[in-house]
Amino acid sequence: METIIACKTCGLMQRTEELQPGMAAECCRCGSIISERKVNSLARTAAFSLAALIFYLPANIYPILRMNYYGAYSESTVWDGCVSLFRDGQWLVAVIVFLASILIPLCKLLGLFYLVVTAKFNSPRRQQERTWIYRIIEMIGPWAMLDVFLLAVLVALVKLEFATVLPGPGLLAFTAVVVLNILASTSFDPELIWEEPDKAS
User: Please, are residues 98 and 77 in contact by the beta-carbon 8 Å criterion?
Assistant: First the structure.
């Protein structure tokens, strides 16, 4: 079965044949990838999502930073950072850190799990809604990044010139959540939402 696809780089309309997992189609004019099927998409997405959810709990429970400031020792989790920013009047930064570090990663993982489960069981129901869920996950993806949180931490550390700051045990888990979240979202093949029951993989 042939489909007509427009290249996102040069805009050329061209026909492509149905691709098998692991195959990709290139634009005949500019050489850009116009269509791609990923190998073991569901298994890889589920594995990365599950691993990210396992790290999500310690990332939010254990302290991200350990700070010694003039003899006063303190530990801060991501949630503590959000609360401190809010109390200091920086509520906009607090909301951004909360969304980027806590809420959006969790929503992405739950959304990906839902897409994986429905695709695995070849559910023909609500395909349009599932497509919208995938688009939302792609849209909010750039907000679930480590650098947003690290920027807020950097701003706080610049004000504490005489503080000794050490990474806490939650920092490694938090970094793992971010990396695994990215791997999970890039592993999912959205064409599986509309795949025929005997072809989903």
Answer: no
